[in-house]
Specification:
341 residues, mainly alpha, 0% strand
Amino acid sequence: MRRPGRAVLRGAVGVALIAGVFAAVVPRIASYGSVAHRLSTVSAPWLAGLAAAALLDVVTTALPWRVLLPQLSWLGALGFTQASTALTTVLPGGAPLGMALSFGFLRRLRVGAAAAGFAVALTGIWSQAMIFLYPLAGALLVFATGRLSGSTAAIAGASAAAGALLVGLAFAALRSPRAAQRLGDVAGRLAGRVAQLLRRDPPAWDGEMLVQLRQEWLSDIRSRWPSLTAATLVNQLTAYLIFELSLVAVGISYRELPASEAFLAWAIGRVISSLPLTPGGIGVVELGMIGTLVGFGAPHTHVVAAVLLYRGLVIIPTLAVGAFALLGFHRLPPAPSATPL
């Protein structure tokens, strides 16, 4: 089967999975009528607070990129992150697709190939490592309450192992030129496959580029990693803030659902969203979060309403801002040797 055919089949399977979740699974947990009624009870002050949190979530996406590429304007960093995130929300591919798209957008912004590859690799590693480690932190918090189930512990353990592996690979690449060569070659092949799937020219990075970047940027990484860590945490935890506000806004109290359990459910959703299962993780993320919260004993209707509200607040603003940013990017001439978009 040709690759375009495989892409179409994969997209069709993703759409079928999304339809199955929302048409057959979610209504068994809570009827959409009761969910709509619960959402209608959210007061105007809570809506204003949720809107402010959603705006903060969008704005902070520029933070990690501004740490590594200070030559980018805040508007430029914000525009390309929202554009790439919007595309990964509607296209299958997960984190690898987002990294390939980010590289192409940075080249459109006249960022050099070496600097763009360095920034994409480092922000990707930092982001994914934290995403995989969040469930472990959540599991430890829930374990202290004695309400951690075996299945949830297994998910947290597997996620933490993936995060530790990613951190270990990054550490090896920074310490050893040979490890950097191998890691760069693997990343280049993966990016090439994603580009081929999208019928785009492959990004111009490989193991040799990563070795060169390691030599040029090692001292820079040592000085900037605390700022990059803080910026990534601020950006990602704004989404958790939206989730917590969504839970309280629909009527779930902290007594019914402690913050530790809410954080673990959010962390599991973040892990699922980074996997190339469906575009933007739609369907599977909601199912994972709802299942976790219901397992903790939270009221079904309230849980479904809160999760759908949260997902709408993190997806819809990005789609709107990203679509506007894409219009601007398509008016920019491609940089020499850039990845066409």
